Protein: CRAL-TRIO domain-containing protein
Amino acid sequence: MHLEGEHHMVLYTEEDKQAVKKENGLKDSGLKEDIDAIMEWFKKQPHLAEAPIDRDLIERILIASKGSREKTKYRIENFYKHRALAPELIQSRVEILSKTDENIWTFFHQGIGPKLYDGKRIGFINFESDPSTFNTEVLYRNIILVGDFRLKYDYMFNEIWVIDLNNTGFGHLMRMNPIILQKAVNIYQEGMGVRVSKIHCVNAPVFGHHVANFMKKFVKSKMIERAVIHDSMESLQKHIPKQYLPKDYGGDLPTLKELSDDLEKEFRTEKTKKALLDFCQLVSDESKRPREKYNEEAIVGSFKKLDLD
Structure:
């Protein structure tokens, strides 16, 4: 069933939508009231009041917050704050989206499955072999760009990642900028609140444990525990059916490069480009934040236990 606002690259049904609401404690009867209350709160915050927000974004952050108004406020605070503190990951899209002759992905490919598998959206990433082309800012700028695309058009924020490490080596790891990585994790994990149920790593190099140890410094340990290392495509296919995988992973979907190219074409359409550029305005004015009313450590301590699933 086609839904109003549904995008052909991130399909879901009304049944899927209702299942997400039920899973996350959202009830249609109280949704309008929740959104109204959060909108009113938002407009009263001096560091947020001049930034835009819409009801759809609030609803999606409510989903990530499992229906809790207070946790939604916390996520919105982090969403706008961490984006304001990372212009190299957010504002840099303005230039790249205006360059029609320049490839957005440069050294890697990223795609998303159009159909849900087990109520989850599958994302795919692979890399080129030359580590000299690896750039942490470009990598996470694009990952967040895809995340914003999904915030605009998708309704599913429980996802599965398939990461192909075939062409990676120590050269890539050594070029990883830990400051940029931390900023990206803050945006994606603390702001967007996307839940990753499983990370499937294929073609993992022999130094894979070094990668895991490095990532443990930045992401929650539960994320690392959800990683599955596969020694073959047959092993991957035991977890994800072929109809949800790209051709180059033994599946029925277009190749990962084709999925990546399709995303880039969509990002350059007038409607989607405008939506992605509008996200650049979703930043706080930290100079206006009432410091005495905002204790980040207290907020993190209050909600961390609620953010495990």
Strands lie at 108-112, 121-127, 158-164, 195-202, 227-230. The two ends are 29 Å apart (CA to CA). The chain has one domain: 1-309.
